[in-house]
Design goal:
9 strands, seven-stranded antiparallel beta sheet, mainly beta
Length: 118
């Protein structure tokens, strides 16, 4: 799995669906390829971002956002490729530093070059 980019803030295509008061959404673009020889159950993958204070913010379900489609794969067959965006609800003033994921038992971390806090 690779983190390809991000969008800040992310917005839902449904205008009534928005982050909680004092929060914003950040979308991280992902690309996943199953390089193994068997199907991979993506539902066991965990993902979160950490902010400049070390707080963890897990991925949330938002449905389609205006700048891309959510990561919606449940399984990847051998050699299958999928792309999508995960969305995270974070405090309005938080500076997001890293994207983290566990794929099976393997922890993965990407440094994100996000804009400074608002």
């Amino acid at each position: 799995m690779s983190a390809l980019g991000y969008v800040d803030p992310a917005r839902s295509v449904r205008t009534a669906h928005r982050p909680a008061a004092g929060k914003r959404w950040i979308g991280v673009d992902l690309s996943a390829v199953n390089v193994g020889g068997t199907s991979y159950d993506a539902r066991i993958t965990k993902a979160w971002v950490t902010d400049d204070k070390g707080r963890r913010h897990p991925a949330i379900r938002t449905g389609e956002i205006t700048t891309g489609f959510p990561a919606a794969w449940n399984a990847l067959a051998a050699r299958e490729h999928a792309e999508g965006r995960l969305v995270f609800e974070v405090p309005e003033n938080a500076r997001i530093m890293r994207f983290h994921s566990t794929v099976g038992d393997s922890p993965l971390t990407w440094q994100l070059q996000l804009p400074p806090s608002r």
